[in-house]
What we know:
Blueprint: H1 2-9, H2 11-20, H3 25-55
Amino acid sequence: MATAVAAAADPTVAVAEERLSVGLAGPVGIVAVILGAGGLLIGLVRRRRTLRSAAIPAPRPTPAEPARTDTTV
């Protein structure tokens, strides 16, 4: 019992236990946030490209014969 109390009072043991008790929740959460933000940015870029291409009007077809003019030579 005396060794357990002495170990609990030792600050280096407490720091080591805190480092080991993190588990996978922290790193997995960080990776999930990074992937989510990346997916959001990719989706926004795709949407912007789609809207930009839809805003460009289709080119007009060229007439087969030249336009007539009312000027006389």
